[in-house]
Amino acid sequence: MSNLNKDVLYLIFEELQDDSKALFSCIMINRTWCEVGIPILWRNPWRYNINYSNKSYLSAVIFSYLSDDIREFLERQGIELPLILYQKNLFDYLSFCRSININVINSILSIISSLAYIQFPLQQELYELFMKKCTEFKYLDMRSIKHQIFCFPEAKVCLETLCELICDTSIDSTYFYGIARICQNIEIIVIINTSQIANHGIAKLIEFQENIKNFEWKDDIEEYYYFIDDPYEEILLALEKKANILNHIKIFFQYIDGYEHTLFQKVLPKFYKLKTLIIVGEFIFINEEQSKMFVFPELEILFIDCITINAASNIIENSGGHIKEILLFKYYDYFFEDNFDDDSLEFIHKIHEHCPLIEYLSLEFSPSKEHFIEFEKLLKVCQNLNTLLLNIFNFNEVETYEKILENGEELLKALIRSAPTNLREIRFFNDFKFSLEALEEFLKKWIGRPTLSIFTTDYIYEDDDYMKLINKYKDDRVIKDFRFTLTYEILYSRSNI
């Protein structure tokens, strides 16, 4: 194994590039493994879940590049640098780097001093070093940036290859004008909205992009109920001009002006090439009439918080049969739904008619015989189904506890009869329950299938009898995980949210 040639090692390490522990272990095997692994590890060293301020060796690698002038400046300030900084590096680590993360770099530099007058020249020094050492950058996280790095002499060569940019709206507009002048082929833009004032530079940055595929906006404002001016309008109009190339839109709104933001509803249907549409926020409501305009033939991921059942059915019907993930209905109150039973039945029908490739699915429906029959049809057709998020409740009448248990038993029987072999995860709320006997019967019959993970908000399953049963089937490797968690975790513990 340790004698594998470099080409094979490279392919293996490429597969491990997201796993820092595995890569760190590999580079310790021998010199050849180290020579192959180090460039991959340092391509984007900021991506890993590491507390860099506590990793003295990693910090020392960064500090070792400081010039004599900076070292003398630090010594005059009474700051003693570790002796390890004066040792020669085995590799020119920064030359492998294809990314900059301003927050992480500043965190590392704060080990030397947190004082602003010391931090500023240190940052300036290190950013210039990156520009000189790196021939091209692919990734830039410029949150909390203080330096106009696009003014460095090497900036044009380094940054014109930028593919992914993360930033926040507190950054001065001039930074975005400078980036837009150099970088016009950014494919992924992630905006963290931390300001109550519209940032005009972001819209200009979007307008300059010729290859933008992925746009993400996240509100992160404490007092989000008050805006000095509309932070969304200019951004939406800029995105509208890119409708023919955008494939992925993720919107996480805390606040939007009014229950229906008419501009948002007007612009959204124009993104006809969407593969991902994620809208998280209770203030964006999509009704049935609006949804008729949403025709996304390439759609694969659909997550919308506030939408009627019929509106969701329309979007699914107008898709091209490629949908793999659906999460809907978090903020919609179905007590306002006049025909919940009929509409939810039709929704299940639309799923198995138009979404044969579905892998992750949220469903809400009544516990009627017709619904369970349609649900089983879905299970038989959608053979790729991996995760089910279920909410089953009766709007027409208040059910007895015995009837609720009966509904749970009926669901378990349907899963045993018709669940696809790919099904490995079930998430559910406490609107329906499983009796101890029904759950045991289900788990017995699940033996021989893939191990199952179950997540629920219902703490009834923490009772001793249930825990004893669950642990038994964990030991028998029928259950992989059985967890009680919050509603938010049930809904949003997905990698692409």
Helix content percent band: 25-40%
Count every beta strand, where a strand is a DSSP E run of 2 or more residues.
Answer: 14
Number of helices: 20
Low-confidence stretches: none
Anisotropy-based shape: globular
Rg over alpha carbons: 27 Å
Main sheet summary:
14 strands, parallel
Average pLDDT: 85
Distance between the termini: 38 Å
Give the percentage of residues in beta strands.
5-15%
Strand order of the largest sheet: 1-2-3-4-5-6-7-8-9-10-11-12-13-14
Assign the structural class, choosing from mainly alpha, mainly beta, alpha/beta, alpha+beta, or little secondary structure: alpha/beta
Protein name: F-box domain-containing protein
Organism: Glomus cerebriforme
InterPro entries: LRR_dom_sf
Describe the model:
This is F-box domain-containing protein. With 497 residues, the protein is an alpha/beta fold. It has a 14-stranded parallel β-sheet with strand order 1-2-3-4-5-6-7-8-9-10-11-12-13-14. Helix 12 links the parallel strand 6 and strand 7. Helix 9 packs parallel to helix 10. The longest helix is centred in the N-terminal third of the chain and has 18 residues. The relative contact order is 0.04. The mean pLDDT is 85.
